[in-house]
Design goal:
Elements lengths: L2 E6 L9 H9 L3 H9 L3 E3 L2 E2 L11 E6 L17 E5 L3 E6 L16 H7 L24 E7 L2 H12 L4 E9 L6 E5 L2 E3 L7 E3 L7 E9 L3 E8 L6 H8 L14 H7 L6 E9 L6 E5 L4 H13 L1
Parallel strand pairs: 7-14
Antiparallel strand pairs: 1-4, 2-3, 2-4, 5-6, 6-7, 8-13, 8-14, 9-12, 10-11, 12-13, 14-15
């Protein structure tokens, strides 16, 4: 169902093109924003807008947004390479491989954790939207490591609350370019969608508060292996924050990594791994922790980095 929105142009969008302004305001891609404008569904002070029109703060926008595409329903199908780290009546902790999304989303045609669990005969909680049942947190499709899925309704509600209240210990390791200075620190910078509308995220004034703690485990000639603890869990948070301080994850070409270095390390995705996950078990409250070993591509990249140092 289409959604009608009316609002003034914020001061921060003064001088922006109309298509860029729509992309930032409503989380659309620039292409999708241009389509909405071309359809005559955007009025600026009562007049149909053109995508190249420059915005004036305080002008009145009237926008008819098309209904978002519905996410596909899960199709149970085993996922090769996805293993179970732990399972009981309430939770299942998976070791998520590369190229696997957490759950079905519009436009994603690859495998998902949810479909893999259902396809292997595991039960999951039915709370939440059908395409996200049991999912209480996510890892990027090309980020590997430990991920918990709720099997019982109690586990779903308690784990959702735990992630929201930041009582879950989420530990990652990342191989980043260069040597962060200081070797241990905190990146506290708000994150929102990238102004380009191309699906990336960025440090943006007025974005959602985002906090990343890092500590150097080992320094190589041109790279550093970091231990990372997240306080918040924004989309692409580690990748965005490390790129913002000019130390992108090795292999992360979308966020500014050196493609020559990535090729030398044999990386076809970001070197980022969810190495450990700890939380209060929803059944009885006792603390549990689960660890995930590095997959082969990350091990190989580390071996190359060590050999070159």
């Amino acid at each position: 169902m289409a959604e009608h929105r009316s609002l003034p142009v914020p001061d921060g969008l003064e001088g922006e093109r109309l298509d860029a302004a729509l992309a930032r305001l409503f989380g659309l891609s620039r292409t999708r924003a241009a389509e909405v404008i071309a359809a005559g569904d955007v009025l600026v002070d009562g007049q149909a807008g053109a995508k190249s029109d420059r915005m004036q703060a305080g002008s009145w926008l009237e926008v008819t947004l098309p209904a978002p595409p519905s996410a596909p329903k899960p199709r149970p199908e085993p996922v090769p390479g996805m293993t179970i780290l732990y399972e009981d009546a309430d939770i299942v902790v998976v070791n998520k491989p590369i190229g696997v999304a957490a759950h079905p989303t519009p436009g994603w045609t690859g495998p998902t954790v949810l479909e893999g669990l259902l396809g292997s005969g595991h039960t999951v909680a039915t709370s939440g939207a059908a395409e996200r049942q049991g999912i209480v947190h996510r890892l990027d499709a090309n980020t590997t490591g430990a991920m918990v899925v709720a099997k019982s309704e109690l586990a779903y509600s308690m784990l959702k609350r735990a992630f929201k209240e930041r009582t879950v210990d989420k530990r990652y390791q990342a191989l980043v370019q260069g040597h962060p200075d200081p070797l241990r620190g905190t990146i506290d910078a708000p994150i929102d969608r990238h102004p380009s509308g191309d699906g990336r995220f960025a440090v943006v004034a007025g974005g959602r508060p985002s906090v990343t703690h890092y500590d150097t485990i080992e320094a190589f000639r041109a790279l550093s292996l970091l231990d990372i603890k997240l306080e918040t869990g924004r989309t692409h948070q580690i990748r965005v924050h490390m790129s913002a301080v000019r130390h992108p994850c090795a292999g992360d070409l979308a966020y500014g990594a050196d493609p020559t270095l990535a090729a030398r390390l044999g990386l076809r995705r970001q070197w980022l791994h969810a190495v450990r996950l700890g939380f209060d078990h929803p059944a009885d409250g006792h603390w549990v922790e689960f660890e995930s070993p590095y997959p082969d591509d990350l091990v190989h990249a580390l071996e190359v980095a060590a050999a070159e140092s």
